[in-house]
Amino acid sequence: SGTIHEKYVEFSWKGTDDFTSEEQLTYSYKLEPYENTWSDWTRETSINYEDLAEGKYTFFVQAKDYRDNVDPTPAERSFVIEKEETADPPPNSPPDTEILTGPEGIITETSIIFTWIGSDDETPTSNLKYSYWLDGKDLDWSSWTSSTEQEYNNLHYGEYTFRVKARDESGEEDDDSPAQQSFSVEPWDPNRFVTRVVDYSVTGNLDKIKGAPHGCGMYCGSGHVLTLGNNGHVTVGFNVVIVNEPGYDFIVFENPFSINGT
User: Fold this and answer.
1) What's the structural domain count of the chain?
2) Is residue 261 domain-resident?
3) Would the pTM of this model clear 0.85, i.e. be above it?
4) Contact in structure between 11 and 35 (CB atoms under 8 Å)
5) In what order do the strands lie in the sheet with 197-203?
6) Which of 138, 156, 185 finishes a domain?
7) CA gyration radius, the chain
């Protein structure tokens, strides 16, 4: 009775009479609207139905004694078959990609390598596929690959943006948020190495000048003219180590130097 979700039902019953024993009683039944007529009389006390459609049903059963007296008030039981609602599985989130190494900012090298890694809530990292695109060189996204690095050589001077996205085993892609990193390739020009002095400090035994961004690689030795305020120019000769940080180059003096011959 009530609401069920199975398409298989079984009914069993028993009858009683003042004069006829239980073993001598016979029965007739029907399941409306599955059946519209009563069954033949039988001594069976159970029946099952299979593959019932969704909907409302009422089962009736009546008894008859050995004198052919029929029960005027058949027993009945009503029920409803409904499709069981199942919760929708949570949507599969697209994978995520992170660039591990690669140039950013201003560089002078024309050969570069990018490396990356992906992650997903269902697909193991080793089974992810990747597609990449270097805007400024490539015409479109690459074909899908399991590789997690890409090298470019002989880049022209200019601005570039590298993008990489992942695809999981279900076909989900992080199209909306691929990892990306921008950089510019510029020729080395010592006159652009330091364009202005914004800070000067001494840390330990190292004298540092913090200048505006522009560099010549990791190491270079040269003489440069630095504009210091409104008092003219100071010529400084030294070997330097360039430590690139956003917005500045740090110049670390490694050899003694002189200012205006002193």
Assistant:
1) 3
2) no
3) no
4) no
5) 197-203, 206-211, 248-253, 233-245, 219-227
6) 185
7) 43
Q: Which residues pair with 211 in a beta bridge?
A: 197, 249
pLDDT over threshold 90, residue 228: no
- Which residue type does 138 have? D
Going by C-alpha positions, the residue among 192, 193, 202 that lies closest to residue 242 is 193
Say which amino acid occupies 148.
T
The whole-number pLDDT of residue 1 equals: 65
Residue 167's alpha-carbon distances to 96, 99, 134, 145, 174, in angstroms, are 9, 15, 18, 10, 7
pLDDT above 70 for 184: yes
Beta partners for 179?
164
175 and 196 fall within a common domain: no
Would you tell me how many other CB atoms lie within 10 Å of the CB of residue 116?
Answer: 22
Residue with tokens 């050969």: 111
Are 173 and 198 in a shared domain? no
Q: What is the Cα–Cα distance from 126 to 120, expressed in whole angstroms? A: 10
Listed in sequence order, the residues at least 6 apart from 151 whose beta carbon sits closer than 8 Å to its beta carbon are 111, 112, 113
Q: Which domain holds residue 196?
A: 190-253
Own/partner contacts of 224-232, CB < 8 Å, gap of 24 or more, are 224/190, 224/193, 224/194, 226/194, 226/197, 227/196, 227/197, 228/197
pLDDT, tens digit, for every residue of 80-121? 988 777 666 667 788 999 999 999 998 989 999 999 999 998
